[in-house]
Amino acid sequence: MxxxxxxxxxxEEDKLIGGYVSVRQAGWLAIPIIVLIVEFIADMSYITNMNxxxxxxxxxxxxxxxxxxxxxxxxxxxxxxxxxxxxKMIKFKYRKxxxxxxxxx
Length: 105
Fold this sequence. Notes:
The chain is mainly alpha-helical. The protein has four helices and two strands. The protein has helices at about 25-40, 45-50, 50-75, 80-95, and strands spanning about 75, 80.
């Protein structure tokens, strides 16, 4: 029987999609695509109304979504992925904290 060494200290995720993007990153990059489909393809009222303000708001929403998703997909903070860092920060902020105070010193 053959023996294969298994590394236990893997810090990088596998780039499964085209060798460039991991599944986590593809999930984050799918969010702006869904927003694009919902804003511009499913709701085509901006074509008939020709309201420039509505069009600018839709483009702004899409731009902000692309920025946030791009940061969450490819960014890193304190040597950890940006999405994991943000989720842990939110979890820490909203968890129940026990504050002990002893007035007898």
